[in-house]
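Ticket #4471: complex job returned nothing on first submit. Input attached below:
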Amino acid sequence: MSSTHNANHYYVPNPVAYPVILSAGLLALASGFIFNINNFPAGKGMMIAGALVILGMIFKWMGSVIAECQNGLYTKWEDKSFRVGMIVFICSEVAFFAAFFGALFFMRVISIPELASFDPQFTMYKDFVASWPSAGPGGVVLGKDYVVGHLNPMEAWGLPALNTFILLTSGATVTWAHWGLLKNNRKQLVLGLFLTVALGIAFLACQAVEYHHAYTEMGLTLGSGAYGASFFMLTGFHGFHVMLGTLMLIVILLRSIKGHFDADHHFGFEGVAWYWHFVDVVWLGLFVFVYWL
Amino acid sequence: MSSTTAAHHDEHHDHPTGIMRWLTTTNHKDIGTMYLTFSLIMFLVGGAMILAVRAELFQPGLQLMKPEFYNQLIGVHALVMIFAALMPAATGFANWMLPLQIGAPDMALPRLNNWGFWLLPPAAILLTLPFTLALFGIGDGAIATGWTFYAPLSIQGGMGVDFAIFSVHLLGVSSVLGSINVIVTILNMRAPGMTLMKMPMFAWAWLVTAFLLIATIPVLAGAVTMLLTDRHFGTHFFDAAGGGDPILFQHLFWFFGHPEVYIVLLPIWGFMPQILQTFSRKPMYGYKAQVISLWAIGALALVVWAHHFFTVGMPVPALLYFMYSTMAISLPLAVLFFCWIATIWKGSLSFETPMLFATGWIVLFGIGGLTGLVLADVAADAQYHHSYFVVAHFHYTLFAGGMMGVMSGVYYWLPKMTGHMFNERLGKLHFWLTAISFNLTFIPQFFLGLAGMPRRIPDYALQFAEFNAISTVAAFVLGLSQLIFVYNIVSCARGGKKATDRVWEGAEGLEWTLPSPPPYHSFTEQPTVK
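Support reply: We reran it on our side without changes. The output follows.
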């Protein structure tokens, strides 16, 4: 191997085909998805093929990163690159959620009051009620029943409050696991990570129950106007991030069980922990602005 | 730091050859070359599209195409030029030059760097595929909403809109990856002794660009995601029937779209002072003032977006706020202009091709900036909005201020990249043809706009015929003279007079201490900067 490493030598990986194959997979997934939503039969197969390629490449790519890490190719210098990169990446995720929060605030504070100020006689939208939470065009539809008028918002102090408690606790357990790692207490590390993963899965389960309740008992769907759209897109993207975070935590848990990481060499752990805290903070925003207020 | 020290580190050429070299490379120079080549190809593709549009506009009436196809051409032209020509050119320069300028062994995250590039060709395929599919009777062509995706038009549009949405997603991921890489490289990979305030201006400018990208690209991704769910999954973000608002889309889009202008231009403001100082043979004027101005412009860029739709109907306080904040940008920008002019003031100037483009760029970009000031005025904008005045204005900023700046950079660094001098006579010819035909194309459009010709319409009233004819002829000269550029680049890459290490007499900076072309792995041991 030509890449001998010392403090002054930065590790530049050898040529690698994963990224370009990953991009081809993304092209297949995206165009398959487009064909699918436009009712072309070829779409499904392309999507599945693309998704499999993407999963395979992520698996191989992350595998080689872990191997390089275990072979000691990353020094403090590379470590700092990863840290700064992760922080910037999380900032870009914050901007992504900001777009949806912005849409929520705009609709609630500007567009719905504006629509409410119009004369209802002249509204072109059947049964539209311009108040928050708006039921959307056509009122509330529940199975075959159809109710004109208001939609009941999702109650904050039931499952959502429990979910807040679950996520905050998981933030504490992942920090406790980190303390274990810093003390070289592997048992505490593994137990803390295991609890965090369990809490993440519990959160997702609660979220699934809540969605089921919304669709089957409340008539709250993606199509329920501004409220339904912002509710499901915000909580949905958040839930997707929780799922990703949980998968990442599972990888870190398995690595910890195998004996990876030590007190001063564990960016992989910390990067995932940062991501988990970010997901946690987004949830607090959701709880306050989507559920509570 | 002598040029010979780097040569003996060139011992491991353990990279594959042929097509696999380019598919799998983790080398910043290879990736930079791919970005720049991709940019050049897409520049020609986007240019060909708009020449078809100009041909249609040569005479009043509809001659060559249906209005639907016309709409597709102008929208895809803009998306291609902005996302696939200008932005990759800036990223290409960053890849090639940042590690050389700050004495880094490579970009900080080389594999992500490779992925960042290889997301672009799929994105370009997604953007242009609907044209081909339409030939086979699938769908009704590419996105026909203009590059701005305005709802509700984009909600009613055909499959081309979906393709454009996913194309933007891939381009966005690519930009975010590129930005992460640039920020990490600048913050973590500088040579010992190179403090932030000793960095080349290009590094500063790209740092601001990268932060703007990180702040705004995800918002665009969010906006087009809402568009997708509005189109196919029953949400009402941009539909008043459910309490949403089409204007919300405009806010989200231009929160990205305005900073995007600076994302395209900032990297050029970074290397332009370096080119000016090289050919003026005196140090850059006002380094600190330029750094502060770049950050000031970057910060202001995030809070002025609504001036792109003054006429949509906003409360007066909002109009006033967006007008004043927009005009405030002219202050730091004026500082930059002053510094550029002061840099060449009383220098011992010589006008090689890069300097010709650089000085022409100052003048033409200045016109773009000043006409922007007119559009920033709420009362005046009501007259100019959606007219050809706007088209002329943003081509002065994005073609003169953007593309001609890129050309200046290409001529400046081409000998360093290839190791050969380009044909100076052809370069000069390219400059004069470009500058003259560019002005002849777009000055008539200012007048057309003032006279009331609306943009994005394939037909026009008879009184606009002469100026449109002039504009079309000049546009074809402009387009064809770019072939000189292509020829010059290709022949320079293949051979020519050997370039020296320093290339230009007055060139300063670490990149000029390396041989031309630099070895495959430059700075495996970092130089020390005093």
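DSSP finds seven helices and two strands in chain A. Closing as resolved unless it happens again.
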